[in-house]
Amino acid sequence: MNGGVQKVGTDTRSGLICQKWLNTLNNFIKGPVE
Q: Which domain holds residue 9?
């Protein structure tokens, strides 16, 4: 059970980091274009 909770927490954190990275990348791409 504990392992499962740990995995979910890690996946969530990875997801947030990925989302933040994608947002940064998006802004970087949009910036020069505008």
A: 1-34
